[in-house]
Amino acid sequence: MHQKKLLVISVIMISFLIILQGCAQKIESIENDPCYNITSDRDRDECYRYAARDLVRPELCEPINSWEQKTICYERLILMTKDSSLCGKIPSEGNKNLCFVHFIKQLKDPEICKRMSRGDDNRDVCYEYLAEALNDTSYCNEVIQEKFYNECYTILALTMKDPALCEKVKFGSTKEWCYENMAIALKTPSFCAKAPSFSNCYEDVNQVIKGKEPCEVNPANPTCP
To answer: Which domain, by its residues, includes 208?
Structure first.
């Protein structure tokens, strides 16, 4: 009889411990997952999005079902944390690439640009920014669209103060603009002859020669602060 009572007590104790463990696990789940009890998909997604932002916990973006809401969730966290590794978690390919472009000057990783689709504006801008970050004109040659290609060589020409790079620019007025900026930056009036459309070129160069700062004379120079 005594043994039977002990057996009953043991069973009750074990059952009680199991219940306690289950409650503890549920409490832990609720603490780790603030949206635990929400049944509506839309409301749950919004809950995760706001919780991720308020608690600064990127992992709370992952359970979001809505592709759009998940994208917004990660983008807000990236702006808050400046963590470029989160770019890879954005489900939208276009937004993901745009995110990486934002960080490319910091990351300086050519593989990021290489993974983007040819013809994508983000890919061209990625290589343009990479060329600027590394002062490496070879990345300008990876740019497909002429607009970004010309920008790439113009900015590097001015950054590296290398007038020969202006010759790489394909579009006439952009090439002249490159030479005008080069004439002012290097205080070399002879480059104005290659920029006939810019009638103030010689005058602007003379102002710099007389002591004015190049950026004061030509604030449109992309290398000026």
So the answer is: 163-225
Give dist(CA 122, CA 97) in Å, integer.
6
Taking the CA atoms of 47, 53, 57 and 63 in sequence, report the sign of the dihedral they define: positive
Residue 127 domain flag: yes
Whole-angstrom distance, CA of residue 112 vs CA of residue 142: 13
Domain count, the chain: 3
Q: Residue 192 in contact with residue 180, Cβ under 8 Å? A: yes
Residue 19, pLDDT score: 42
Residue 29 lies in a domain: no
| pTM of the predicted model as reported, rounded to 2 decimal places | 0.71
Phi-psi region of 15 (alpha: psi -120 to 50; beta: other; left: phi over 0): alpha
Rounded CA-CA distance 29/59 in Å is 14
Residue 6 lies in a domain: no
Residue 215's pLDDT band, with cuts at 50, 70 and 90, is confident
Residue 23 has pLDDT above 60, yes or no: no
Helices and strands counted in the chain (H then E) = 10, 0
Residue 143: exposed, middle, or buried by beta-carbon count in 10 A (0-12, 13-18, 19+)?
buried
Q: How far apart are CA 40 and CA 30, in angstroms?
A: 17
Is 81 found in the same domain as 56?
yes
Q: Distance between CA atoms of 14 and 12, rounded to whole angstroms? A: 6
Whole-angstrom Cα distance, residue 66 to residue 49?
11
